[in-house]
C-alpha cells in the first residue's frame, strides 16, 4: 500500500507541475482558445487515468451545455455530447457547478438513472467524472471544466489540490485574456467618441486594399474635418466642443454602411474607409449624406443650438494605386483643397501631391454638392 500511495502522490505532484509550467504560456500568447486547449492537453498527458477534459464557458442560466474545447482519447464522445437542463440533469455535476458549487465528482455507474449518457460514457472507459467551476470576468457567465477518469474514486485519491489548481488555471486564463482584450480596446479606441483611433489604421487600410483588389471593386479613403470647431470652442466652451465631436462621430457612423469604418485621428479630424464603391456617383451620394447629416443643428445644454459643417476629401483605390500612408496623404490633400474652395463640400483627389501647404497643382475632381456633375479644380 505504501508503494501505491507513493505513486499516487507522485502523480498528484506531476499534475500540479504541468499546470504550473503552463502558466508561462500566458506571457507567450493571448489566444484564449489555444491556452485553454494547452492546459487541458497538459492535464490529460500528465495522467494515464484522465481520459478526457473539456471546457464550456457561457451563461450560468444556460439551458444546455456542450463541450467547446476538448482534449483526450475520447474526443468523438465530446463532439456528440449535449447536456440539457432537466429536473434529472440538474442533480448532475455540470448543472450543480452552474448552480454555484466549486466542484462535484460522481461515479459513472452502469445502473445510473441517467440512462444513455452514462452507458455511452462507460463504453469509452469512463468510470468517474468531475466538474469544476472557473469564475469569469463577466459575472453572468461561468466556466465549467469536466474531467473523466478510468477509475472510480480516482479524484478523491489524488486529492482536491491538482484539480482545484487546474480550475484556477482556467480562471486565470479567462481573466488574463479579458484584461488583454480590455487594454487592447483602450489602446485602439478614442476615449471621447468611442470610435477607433489612429492606431492600427494603416494595417486595416492595407488589408482592405488587398480585399478590394480581389473583389475587383473600389475603396474610398476619406479625410473629414469640421469647419468651425475652434469657433465653437471659443464661443460655447470646450465641453460643447467635445459634444460636437461626439455627435459628429455618431452621425457619420449612422450614415456609413456595414463594414465601413470611421477613425478619429485627433482634434476634429477623422479618417473614413468606405468599401464596395461602385463609382463616382456612389461616392457622391455617400458624401452628400455625410455632409448633410453634419449640418443638422446640435442641441447643447439649455437652449444652446450649435451649427457646424464639415469638409471632406477622398481618394479612390485602386485608381489611386498607392500604399496606405500615401492614400491618406492624398485624401488629406483633397480635404485641404475642399477647405480652400470654400468648405462644406467634398473633393476627389486624382493626382499625387505631397505639399499640403500649397494648393495642389495637379487636377482634382470637385464634386459639386447638389449636382451629379463634376468640376475640375486646380
List the helices and strands and how they pair.
Elements: H1 2-22, H2 25-28, H3 32-46, E1 50-59, E2 64-65, E3 69-72, H4 75-80, E4 83-84, H5 93-98, E5 103-107, H6 116-123, E6 128-135, E7 141-149, H7 154-158, H8 161-188, H9 201-215, E8 218-226, H10 229-236, H11 238-255, E9 261-266, E10 269-277, H12 280-294, E11 298-299, E12 305-306, E13 310-317, H13 324-340, E14 346-349, E15 364-367, E16 374-377
Parallel strand pairs: 13-14
Antiparallel strand pairs: 1-3, 1-7, 2-4, 5-6, 6-7, 8-10, 8-13, 9-10, 11-12, 14-15, 15-16
Highlighted features:
5-stranded antiparallel beta sheet, 13 helices, single chain, disordered C terminus, elongated
Provide an overview of this structure:
With 378 residues, the protein is α+β, with helices and mostly antiparallel strands. The protein is built from 13 helices and 16 strands. The chain has helices spanning 2-22, 25-28, 32-46, 75-80, 93-98, 116-123, 154-158, 161-188, 201-215, 229-236, 238-255, 280-294, 324-340, and strands at residues 50-59, 64-65, 69-72, 83-84, 103-107, 128-135, 141-149, 218-226, 261-266, 269-277, 298-299, 305-306, 310-317, 346-349, 364-367, 374-377. It has a seven-stranded mixed sheet, sandwiched between helices. Strands 3-1-7-6-5 form a five-stranded antiparallel sheet. Strands 2-4 form a two-stranded antiparallel sheet. A hairpin with a 6-residue loop joins strand 15 and strand 16 (374-377). Helix 1 packs parallel to helix 8, helix 3 packs antiparallel against helix 8 and helix 11 (238-255) packs antiparallel against helix 12. The longest helix has 28 residues, at 161-188. The chain is elongated, with a radius of gyration of 30 Å.
Amino acid at each position: 500500500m505504501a508503494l501505491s500511495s507513493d505513486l499516487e502522490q507522485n502523480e498528484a505532484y506531476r499534475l500540479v507541475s504541468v499546470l504550473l509550467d503552463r502558466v508561462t504560456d500566458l506571457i507567450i500568447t493571448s489566444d484564449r482558445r489555444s491556452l485553454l486547449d494547452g492546459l487541458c492537453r497538459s492535464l490529460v498527458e500528465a495522467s494515464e487515468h484522465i481520459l478526457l477534459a473539456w471546457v464550456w464557458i457561457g451563461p450560468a442560466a444556460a439551458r444546455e451545455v456542450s463541450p467547446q474545447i476538448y482534449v483526450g482519447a475520447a474526443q468523438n464522445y465530446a463532439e456528440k455530447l449535449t447536456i440539457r437542463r432537466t429536473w434529472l440533469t440538474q442533480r448532475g455535476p455540470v448543472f450543480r457547478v452552474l448552480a454555484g458549487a466549486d466542484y462535484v465528482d460522481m461515479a459513472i455507474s452502469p445502473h445510473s438513472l441517467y440512462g444513455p449518457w452514462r452507458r455511452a460514457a462507460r463504453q469509452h472507459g469512463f468510470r468517474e467524472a468531475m466538474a469544476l467551476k472557473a469564475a469569469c470576468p463577466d459575472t453572468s457567465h461561468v466556466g465549467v471544466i469536466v474531467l473523466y477518469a478510468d477509475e472510480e474514486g480516482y479524484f478523491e485519491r489524488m486529492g482536491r489540490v491538482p484539480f482545484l489548481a487546474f480550475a484556477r488555471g482556467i480562471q486565470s486564463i479567462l481573466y488574463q485574456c479579458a484584461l488583454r482584450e480590455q487594454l487592447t480596446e483602450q489602446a485602439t479606441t478614442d476615449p471621447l467618441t468611442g470610435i477607433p483611433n489612429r492606431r492600427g489604421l494603416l494595417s486595416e487600410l492595407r488589408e482592405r486594399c488587398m480585399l478590394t483588389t480581389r473583389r475587383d471593386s473600389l475603396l474610398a479613403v476619406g479625410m473629414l474635418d469640421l469647419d468651425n470647431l475652434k469657433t465653437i470652442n471659443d464661443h460655447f466652451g470646450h465641453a460643447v466642443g467635445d459634444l460636437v465631436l461626439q455627435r459628429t462621430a455618431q452621425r457619420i457612423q449612422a450614415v456609413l454602411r456595414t463594414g465601413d469604418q470611421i477613425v478619429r485621428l485627433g482634434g476634429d479630424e477623422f479618417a473614413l474607409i468606405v468599401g464596395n464603391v461602385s463609382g463616382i456617383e456612389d461616392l457622391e451620394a455617400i458624401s452628400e449624406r455625410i455632409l448633410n447629416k453634419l449640418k443638422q443643428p446640435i442641441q447643447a445644454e439649455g437652449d444652446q443650438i450649435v451649427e457646424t459643417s464639415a469638409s471632406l476629401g477622398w481618394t479612390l483605390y485602386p485608381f489611386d494605386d498607392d500604399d496606405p500612408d500615401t492614400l491618406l496623404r492624398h485624401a488629406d490633400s483633397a480635404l485641404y483643397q475642399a477647405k480652400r474652395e470654400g468648405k462644406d463640400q467634398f473633393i476627389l483627389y486624382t493626382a499625387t501631391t505631397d505639399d499640403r501647404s500649397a494648393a495642389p497643382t495637379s487636377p482634382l475632381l470637385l464634386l459639386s454638392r447638389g449636382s451629379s456633375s463634376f468640376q475640375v479644380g486646380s
